[in-house]
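stage 2 :: seqdesign
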């Protein structure tokens, strides 16, 4: 029964087109360049991609030799195009394999790309797609946001390195937060600002400011979309510069948590030893050498005291989502 429900959810998402967001090449280039040493002699899997318009497949196939890849694999859900550079429709799921340039022109030509039929529908949870996952060293893609919990759980189960896009709110999903708290998942580099994703022409966007047409293609803007990874970067170990000092008046304590509220990441006090509640945007500045993440205000399983459920309150009013942190490098006031 559980499997049927999962499949129904995936099909509903597919039919409503809610998960069909295609990442721009510029966003991929800006992020992947920070991880280039990791890719040498590795098998890369893009397992949530339509190869007709997948900029992930485009990026890694055209940069195959520069990155020193061993193999590139891309899977797509059924009813996608089995012929990479044509408009012929196909009702079967496929996966593509590319092992590098063969004719010396440094271009991934169609005859150099293997197109292999899948027996199933290309669902990343299917056994044949899991077998492809096992072959891979690094997973890079934009998975369906509606299935992010299952997707990240699978990557962690099979101990894969990854660089994937997801909504910022996933930080406090119980399936994700436990790995963040234990320093097994963190955010990538380019997480600020609004990202524009290509969508199909029939995708309904009701807010004019969130859509645009460029070169005949339709784009949808999404704020709060971030990169999740488990590959180290230098940025992750840069200290956050703190300048404010604690005062009871400026930093009130929660009604139901033994912690102070810090409404802006830039206002984290340099001299406070206790637990602080900060916005989830803090994770973009998080240095595990400088701070410890001890919990969040989204569920008893994330409460450092194991007491409270959902929400933290100030004077009876619920605050926004918060991470609970502790400063490892408290600077005492010498006065």
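stage 2 :: out
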């Amino acid at each position: 029964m559980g499997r049927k429900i999962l499949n129904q959810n995936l099909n509903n998402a597919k039919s409503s087109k809610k998960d069909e967001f295609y990442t721009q090449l510029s966003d991929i280039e800006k992020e992947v360049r920070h991880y280039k040493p990791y890719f040498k002699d590795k098998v890369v899997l893009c397992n949530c991609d339509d190869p007709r318009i997948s900029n992930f497949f485009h990026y890694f196939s055209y940069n195959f030799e520069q990155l020193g890849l061993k193999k590139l694999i891309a899977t797509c859900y059924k009813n996608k195009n089995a012929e990479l550079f044509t408009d012929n429709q196909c009702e079967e799921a496929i996966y593509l394999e590319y092992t590098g340039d063969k004719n010396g022109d440094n271009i991934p030509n169609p005859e150099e790309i293997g197109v292999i039929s899948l027996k199933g529908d290309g669902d990343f949870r299917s056994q044949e797609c899991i077998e492809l996952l096992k072959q891979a060293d690094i997973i890079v893609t934009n998975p369906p946001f509606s299935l992010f919990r299952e997707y990240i759980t699978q990557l962690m189960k099979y101990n894969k390195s990854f660089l994937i896009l997801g909504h910022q709110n996933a930080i406090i999903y119980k399936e994700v937060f436990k790995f963040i708290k234990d320093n097994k998942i963190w955010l990538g580099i380019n997480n600020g600002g609004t990202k524009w994703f290509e969508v199909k022409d029939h995708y309904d966007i009701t807010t004019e400011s969130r859509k645009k047409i460029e070169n005949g293609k339709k784009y949808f803007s999404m704020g709060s979309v971030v990169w999740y990874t488990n590959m180290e970067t230098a940025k992750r170990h840069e200290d956050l510069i703190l300048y404010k000092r604690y005062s009871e008046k400026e930093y009130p304590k929660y009604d139901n948590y033994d912690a102070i509220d810090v409404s802006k990441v830039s206002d984290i006090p340099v001299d406070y030893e206790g637990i602080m509640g900060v916005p989830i945007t803090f994770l973009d500045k998080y240095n595990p050498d400088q701070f410890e993440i001890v919990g969040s205000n989204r569920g008893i399983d994330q409460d450092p005291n194991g007491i409270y459920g959902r929400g933290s309150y100030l004077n009876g009013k619920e605050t926004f989502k918060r991470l609970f942190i502790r400063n490892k490098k408290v600077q005492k006031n010498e006065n």
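stage 3 :: structure notes
- The two ends are 65 Å apart (CA to CA).
- Confidence is low (pLDDT under 50) at residues 1-17, 80-90.
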